Amino acid sequence: MKKYRLLMLxxxxxxxxxICYELIISAVSSYLIGDTTLxxxxxxxxxxxxxxxxxxxxxxxxxxxxxxxxxxxxxVAIVGGxxxxxxxxxxxxxxxxxxVMYIEIIVIGTFVGAEIPILTRIIEDDNExxxxxxxxxxxxxxxxxxxxxxxxxxxxxxxxGYFATSFLIGCMNTLAATLIIFKYSDRLINPxxxxxxxxxxxxxxxLGMLFSDNISSRVEDGLYRDRVIFSKHTKYQHIVxxxxxDDLRLFIDGNIQFSSADEYRYHEALVHVPMSKAKNRxxxxxxxxxxxxxxxxxxxxxxxxxxLVDLDKDMVNLCRENKQIKELNKNSLNSNRLTIxxxxxxxxxxxxxxxxxxxxxxxxxxNNESLNKLYTNVFxxxxxxxxxxxxxxxVQSTSPYYAANAFWCINDTLESEGFYVKPYHLQVPSFGDWxxxxxxxxxxxxxxxxxxxxxxxDESNLDALFEFxxxxxxxxxxxxxxxxxxxxxxxYSEAVRNWE
Length: 500
Hints:
By secondary structure, the chain is of the alpha/beta class.
């Protein structure tokens, strides 16, 4: 087996690459069309099926096995290395994104499925020890898979982004082919053709990686209506800022978080409704809200000491340092009354002993499993434990018009934990009809007094926020959202599909 050590090394490389291609396709599809569980499930299932197809097809590759092996590596590098780019352009210009996604998965999976059988036959033809051959090949294959699955979420995607990562993995596949070509050129037919091919391909992939920022800018200009002025892939999410005239917008994973033209409507309803009912305002907790806009509204009150819990430090740093956002949030994130904790909201509530008079839950919509956890009955139980007996909580609850079942699922889940809940909503032009749920441990009366300066909200229009039309009611029975049965993400995904 010693003379085939290089082949074993390439096995490790191509296995890591193949896992990364799966993750790239799944992550890009989740980013572009949502429903993370569905995208990963389809990718894994279809990929495994395609690998079986590739393994079956490999039996017809009877001669020139080294040529077939190199051809497959080059094919995987081309399709996989450009996979992210193709998917983004398919989303921009085609109505049939899923078909392109499925074709990519099937092609890459078929190629990868043929690799191990061919490699096994190459070594077995010379070594004739099937037991040792299979154990060695599969050992390197599984180790490579582990390396790829760890490197992608921890190193590659956060630091390189989608495009540079796919081009880099394409380079790695090309490198594997190059090692085979130059080490075993005497076993290849027309090795010169393959040498030229891998050199050209490696240069193309390397250029793609080096100019990935330019590619990303061009693609994002097509994805977003306005001019992109900032784009960064953090450890947890993809942040994009756009600007058109005076309208500054911030997006997380493609979903709008605010528009400077009308965000005050959202944040006044989010903050001043619960603050108007709070007996005490000494300690306020904000879960999410890393843009500092909710903090800006709370700082209008003299009493509160504010704790802001946001997982993504890069997001908070952007909004406390960027000149345009600082102007919008009134430099609130640098207030001496504010304590910032960069931690998962669930873990923070689980570990804190502090009690808060007001809790503002300003988290993104529950469009993936990690966010869905922050809308469950257990999460609201933790919120209750951190709320004083007279405390008030409000929860950003998506749209009661566009996602009625999701909105009322949040409402019912809060009630299941013993809260008295008052749902309310308003029109935010950039969002549409948007809803919240006001929750307390004691029943609240219907009197609200706003005693700070606002641009939209006052006592004359506040009562109207609590009125709902028939078309904003749930469609059928709605179940609560729990950790063991995450119904909310299903309701939310159904609403997204209905309005696509």
